[in-house]
Amino acid sequence: MKTGILVPAFSLMLAMSTQAQAPKISAEGGGTDDRASARVLYWDGTANAAAGQFAIDYGRPAWKTQYDDPATFDKMTKGQVWRMGSNFWTALDTCLPLKIGGRSVEPGYYYLGVHRSADGASWSLAFIDPAAVRAAHLDAFDIRKAAIWFETPITMANAASKAQKLTITLSYPKQDFTHVTMKLDWGNVELTAPIEVELPK
Question: What letter does residue 200 receive in the DSSP assignment?
């Protein structure tokens, strides 16, 4: 009779122990994120077809007043890699060869971040391999765990006016549209990088 009581009790304890050790996974999202895209399309008028394009897709975090404090901003950014957006990864998709900050970027799909040196003096655009991120199941929140594939220099300046939400633009002179300037505005921060575009012959 004692054995009959002990077996169910042991089974219950084992089940509770297994439940306690099971990973607790939750889900979030599913609604509409505040995302934007900056794109440059090149059109071949003779062929009446696209000659190539590239685009940057990104989430738009709001600037917080505490970031106005230089000490707080330095603590957030010095020696850090920032995801350059919010929610899902910021991504560059190009079917054209590019030179960004003087570094060749082959056609392909890249996740992007911003790296600031430990002394705060220099900034760079960090390129991350999406295949490696997918294999590791990494969210952009954990960008610091992602291996940086390569970096290209970008220039930081104090913005002339405060951008309440992160905004990326791609601008170019009409007479020289293969020389594009990427500009990221967020709060008091303005980051820029020159992009040279190689068009099909």
Answer: -
Tell me the per-residue pLDDT of 126-173, one tens digit each, with 9 for 90 and over: 999 999 999 999 999 999 999 999 999 999 998 888 999 999 999 999
| Separation of alpha carbons 46 and 100, rounded Å | 28
Strand partners, 23: none
Give the containing element (helix H, strand E) for 63. Answer: none
- CB distance 181 to 195 below 8 Å: yes
- 170 forms beta bridges with 182
Extended strands (E) in 139-178? 148-171
Interval 176-185 mean pLDDT:
96
Whether the CB-CB separation of 129 and 106 falls below 8 Å is answered with: no
Q: HSE-up of 186 (CA within 13 Å, CB side)?
A: 21
**Helix, strand, coil % (nearest 5) of the chain?**
25, 45, 30
pLDDT for 18: 52
Radius of gyration of the chain (CA): 23
What span, in angstroms and rounded, lies between the C-alpha atoms of 96 and 196? 10
> 84: buried, middle or exposed (CB in 10 Å: 19+, 13-18, 0-12)?
buried
Contact 200/51 with Cβ under 8 angstroms? yes
